[in-house]
Design brief:
Layout: H1 10-24, H2 32-40, H3 50-67, H4 71-87, H5 91-107, H6 111-125, H7 132-148, H8 152-168, H9 173-189, H10 193-209, H11 213-229, H12 233-249, H13 256-268, H14 272-288, H15 292-308, H16 312-409, H17 415-430, H18 434-437, H19 443-460, H20 470-476, H21 481-492, H22 496-513, H23 522-528, H24 534-545, H25 549-560
Helix pairs in contact: 1-4, 2-3, 3-4, 4-5, 5-6, 5-7, 6-7, 6-16, 7-8, 7-9, 8-9, 9-10, 9-11, 10-11, 11-12, 11-13, 12-13, 13-14, 13-15, 14-15, 15-16, 16-24, 19-21, 20-21, 22-25
Coiled coil: 391-444
Transmembrane segments: 12-29, 369-388
Organism: Zhouia amylolytica AD3
Length: 561
């Protein structure tokens, strides 16, 4: 622990007393004991270590608030701890407060602010001797934010560094748990559910070893969510019922994630009446904790649950609320990602500048000019390469959308028939290409899989599921994700999401021509066709047809009239 040394300036002393007095006026719920601990720390005000003890008292009080799920008080205590730590130059305690505030902003889905605080904490950490354990604490929380903004490569890198440092340092078990949790989520999002479960069972085992309720319950929630992604809905329910029993046994408050997982599983089992109470309760808790990500998920699955019961009014209301929250969160994720890229660029810029200064001292101005010219040459070469690559990608996309437009414009034939014709045409045109020769499937196997996929798309309509992914569809077809990807690419020249979106656009076209949907808004048509948001519906529809959904509907209404 670092202590403040030297005499305490009178004004600074008055400021720290002011922090306490202001803080005591917040009138926190259930925080009497925490307040008493903070006031007790004033008794040693003449002691030079008073600021340290006072700051620690705020941090301890924040921990109690966090354990109760009282995140607003958790933030306020840490705000005060940060002010004291900054004012009295207590870097270790400043880092602790920054980490806690980063956790608060992560919980409330303010990712940009959270990442900014963690970068600040890392900067302070570099100034401390023997800082490895402190760095571990920052990295494990930072990795959680990277997960939230879908920067899985950075999340995995940070979590693996935590595990590597834990082997040679006396690292807290909770930091190891955090790394396991991050790695499980990353591998799950990347489609490797078995690897995800491997880390989750390690996490649960460690939680049981250290008798930590929160770790055990988080592991159970994430195990259930992984089973959900594997379409093992009965195992989801079984796992979360175990979690609910554990909560009741230890008199712990309800966890919104457990309730959400149960609701999601019952929706998939088409038991809307069982799903709705769990989803509504999860939504209430998420709202009280200001967890927009969780609340958004609740609305998404409530929309489906109400639809199962035929309550289309409530279903549409839930869909609209989901869409609004989704747009807000996408903006926040984009903002956080930009901040992190900016930070990385600044870091790299500083490294380059530092290296150039060193070279200037060693080799003089001549070397600097030569290096500068080389860097400029490399930059220009890199820009030219990116331009050429981007141009090729745009031309490829243009050809792809031209093909899609051709498929969707001939409405006298069923999409299934047109897709088969496309596959035959593509085979005749490209049968000599290396990709066919290197295929792991024979032509007979490939054709068999193609017919299986097209029949499945026509009968089961998996594209209507907002969250359908390649792994889930491959599992339902009893084929590997590699073979699914290979068939889509070789037969239709499309990746998974291009293929799914083609069917969604086709479905939207049919709905807009159906008189029963004349009163539906464009947004509702998009949802009915399987699109998650208005933005993605407009973008994908226009790419495939050359028209916005509104323009397409207007043209076809005019033709009908």
């Amino acid at each position: 622990m670092l202590f403040y040394k030297g005499s305490i300036n009178k004004n600074r002393y008055l400021r720290i007393i002011a922090y306490i007095l202001i803080f005591s006026g917040f009138n926190f719920l259930d925080s009497l004991q925490a307040q008493e601990k903070i006031l007790d720390s004033q008794k040693g005000a003449k002691d030079l270590n008073f600021p340290t003890r006072n700051c620690e008292a705020y941090l301890n009080a924040s921990g109690e608030s966090y354990n109760k799920g009282d995140y607003e008080n958790f933030k306020k205590y840490n705000d005060s701890a940060l002010m004291v730590a900054k004012d009295f130059n207590l870097p270790k305690l400043q880092i602790k407060a920054l980490i806690n505030l980063g956790i608060y902003y992560n919980i409330t889905d303010t990712y940009k602010q959270s990442l900014s605080l963690y970068h600040e904490a890392l900067s302070i950490c570099k100034t401390l001797p023997e800082n490895k354990n402190t760095r571990v604490s920052i990295l494990v929380n930072m990795a959680n934010v990277y997960n939230k903004i879908d920067a899985h490569d950075k999340a995995i890198k940070a979590a693996e560094e935590v595990l590597e440092l834990s082997e040679t340092n006396n690292t807290s078990d909770l930091n190891i748990v955090g790394a396991y949790n991050v790695l499980s989520i990353c591998h799950s999002n990347l489609g490797d559910q078995e690897k995800s479960l491997e880390y989750l069972f390690k996490m649960k085992l460690l939680g049981e070893k250290i008798s930590h309720y929160g770790v055990i319950l988080t592991a159970l929630d994430n195990i259930a969510n992984t089973y959900y992604k594997q379409s093992k809905y009965d195992q989801v329910i079984e796992t979360e019922m175990e979690a609910l029993e554990y909560l009741e046994k230890h008199s712990l408050p309800e966890r919104p994630t457990s309730l959400l997982n149960l609701g999601m599983a019952y929706v998939k089992k088409e038991q809307g009446s069982k799903a709705i109470p769990y989803l509504n309760r999860a939504k209430e808790i998420a709202n009280s904790q200001k967890d927009l990500e969780l609340e958004k998920a609740c609305y998404l699955h409530l929309a489906r649950a109400y639809e199962l019961l035929g309550d289309y009014k409530q279903s549409f209301e839930a869909q609209e609320l989901y869409s609004e929250m989704n747009e807000t969160l996408l903006e926040e994720k984009s903002s956080a990602a930009k901040l992190d890229v900016k930070h990385d660029a600044e870091h790299e810029k500083q490294m380059v500048e530092s290296q150039l200064e060193t070279l200037e001292i060693i080799d003089g101005k001549k070397t600097q000019v030569l290096i500068g010219s080389g860097v400029i040459f490399l930059l220009l070469g890199g820009m030219l390469f990116i331009y050429i690559k981007k141009k090729k990608d745009l031309e490829k996309d243009k050809e792809h959308y031209k093909e899609s437009n051709k498929l969707l414009s001939n409405e006298n034939k069923m999409l299934k028939t047109k897709m088969k014709e496309l596959a035959v045409e593509k085979h005749q045109r490209q049968k000599t290409r290396a990709q066919y020769k290197n295929s792991s499937l024979t032509k007979e196997d490939r054709d068999g899989y193609m017919n299986l996929i097209l029949d499945f798309m026509e009968k089961e309509k998996p594209f209507l599921d907002f969250d359908i992914n390649q792994a889930e569809m491959a599992a339902k077809l009893s084929m590997s994700t590699h073979h699914l990807s290979e068939v889509l690419n070789l037969c239709f020249d499309q990746n998974f999401y291009q293929f799914i979106n083609l069917y969604r656009v086709n479905e939207a076209q049919k709905l807009m021509k159906n008189p029963n949907y004349n009163e539906y808004k464009i947004l509702a048509i998009g949802y009915e066709a399987g699109f998650k948001s208005k933005t993605s519906f407009n973008r994908v529809f226009k790419n495939h047809t050359g028209l916005t959904p509104s323009a397409y509907r207007q043209d076809n209404t005019t033709i009908t009239n």
